[in-house]
């Protein structure tokens, strides 16, 4: 009952922060509880045996117990009927929170006052627009949903933790990696990127990756400012993985340019395209200015100051012994 009550009370905030639910968490907790008891007992024994150098067997058995816990949790998670739920609106979170407070604090018929707030929260749960493009704060990873539950990314080896979070937020099931061509390959013609069909994943060559959102907007990912200039004539969004790109390479005011320096200062970003493509895309950063005390350190990184990555100076070669 404690697990059910705690899970029900925190489910809303888990959905808000992680865009996922765990309907079978109670069964997972009950299944691993005996193993947890054994693992904790072995942990105590290993701590007592450590001064004598006899902790090895206990730690080994702890590892086996943790492996069993992970295996059971994974088996139950794979059979969960619901996992990713996508983004929910802030209005829904606030309304359901009010309903939760009234229902838990009132002890008389006043609890019924929580029902209108709960109903309003359920009706507004989907009243939010999902981002069209997501950009990581290190400017290495760009992702966009291309339809059919697919999420296109610009790197073959993407950060698994980040992509998993994005998949939950955008209710995607499959990661589509980019197709890379060598410089001069005739199959990659940057001269006419408008030929890319809507929903085309990333195609990369010579430091430039191109993709097309289902709305028709073209996204470009460039390694540096000079490479980004080639995309100014056709791109709606350009992401530059270069902190030294201190000014915008495009004169067209309708092109949204995001640099590594901006992301280092203000965190990861979500981009929203204009449905009619008459205005420049809207961008929302994770961190707002003026900084809160725990964000002050962001301004001191090399990227935030517009400096290139640190490279250790090469040591002078010693002359050969005579």
UniProtKB/TrEMBL annotation:
Keywords (A to Z) from UniProt: Membrane, Transmembrane, Transmembrane helix
Transmembrane regions listed in the UniProt entry: 30-50, 57-76, 88-110
Residue ranges of every copy of the ComEC/Rec2-related protein domain listed in the record: 2-110
InterPro entries from the UniProt entry: ComEC_N
UniProt-recorded name of the protein: ComEC/Rec2-related protein domain-containing protein
Taxonomic lineage: Bacteria, Pseudomonadati, Pseudomonadota, Alphaproteobacteria, Hyphomicrobiales
């Amino acid at each position: 009952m404690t697990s059910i009550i705690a899970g029900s009370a925190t489910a809303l905030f888990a959905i808000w922060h992680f865009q996922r639910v765990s309907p079978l968490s109670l069964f997972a907790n009950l299944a691993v509880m005996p193993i947890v008891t054994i693992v904790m007992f072995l942990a105590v024994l290993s701590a007592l045996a450590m001064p004598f150098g006899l902790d090895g067997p206990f730690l080994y058995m702890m590892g086996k117990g943790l492996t069993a816990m992970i295996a059971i949790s994974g088996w139950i998670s794979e059979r969960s009927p619901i996992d990713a739920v996508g983004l929910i609106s802030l209005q829904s979170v606030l309304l359901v929170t009010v309903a939760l407070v009234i229902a838990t604090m009132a002890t008389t018929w006043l609890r019924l006052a929580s029902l209108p707030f709960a109903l309003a929260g359920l009706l507004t749960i989907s009243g939010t627009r999902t981002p069209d493009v997501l950009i990581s704060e290190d400017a290495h990873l760009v992702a966009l949903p291309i339809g059919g539950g697919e999420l296109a990314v610009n790197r073959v080896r993407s950060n698994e933790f980040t992509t998993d979070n994005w998949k939950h937020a955008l209710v995607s099931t499959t990661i589509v990696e980019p197709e890379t061509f060598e410089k001069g390959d005739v199959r990659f013609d940057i001269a006419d990127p408008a030929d890319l069909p809507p929903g085309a994943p990333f195609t990369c060559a010579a430091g430039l990756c191109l993709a097309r959102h289902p709305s028709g907007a073209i996204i470009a990912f460039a390694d540096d400012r000079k490479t980004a200039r080639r995309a100014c004539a056709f791109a709606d969004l350009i992401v530059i993985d270069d902190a030294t790109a201190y000014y915008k390479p495009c004169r067209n005011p309708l092109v949204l340019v995001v640099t590594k320096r901006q992301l280092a200062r203000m965190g990861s970003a979500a981009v929203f395209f204009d449905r009619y493509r008459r205005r420049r895309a809207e961008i929302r950063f994770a961190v707002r200015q003026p900084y809160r005390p725990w964000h002050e350190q962001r301004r001191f990184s090399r990227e935030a100051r517009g400096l290139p990555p640190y490279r250790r100076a090469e040591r002078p070669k010693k002359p050969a012994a005579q």
